[in-house]
Amino acid sequence: xxxxxxxxxxxxxxxxxxxxxxxxxxxxxxxxxxxxxxxxxxxxxxxxxxxxxxxxxxxxxxxxxxxxxxxxxxxxxxxxxxxxxxxxxxxxxxxxxxxxxxxxxxxxxxxxxxxxxxxxxxxxxxxxxxxxxxxxxxxxxxxxxxxxxxxxxxxxxxxxxxxxxxxxxxxxxxxxxxxx
Length: 180
Hints:
Blueprint: H1 3-23, H2 30-56, H3 62-85, H4 91-113, H5 122-140, H6 146-171, H7 173-176
Helix pairs in contact: 1-2, 1-3, 2-3, 2-5, 3-4, 3-5, 4-6, 5-6
């Protein structure tokens, strides 16, 4: 259990605390929303940090390859589902975002079975960045930033679809030919 893997496990362990803070008093406590945002930011930063450390010090493990993307999806999906519950995001948007994650994970699984690694694309990285920003803005729920928040949500949604289409186009051979 090296440092990057410990950071990944820490991210997963932070999720219940994040959800509890966000949902405290039905999401009505602004202080707890700020606490939830802080937990979300720290958890998101562990994602950035664990990958950098793993690559820099050659600490990439099978556990990390499996758990890191799973931890990311659990964190973001937890946030999005809570935001539906709080009436801040429509379910259809969250369904699109989560569906994209399942599709890409499926593609990666099939590719892996064929000995192919599908690396993260720039579109996927932009998508993740805007999702994180949009989630944080939705969590803190500052009325003066409502327009900025909505713009970020829509950009995240558009990038979700664009990154999916990009993956499908670049990697269609994974499904059509069985290998790349």
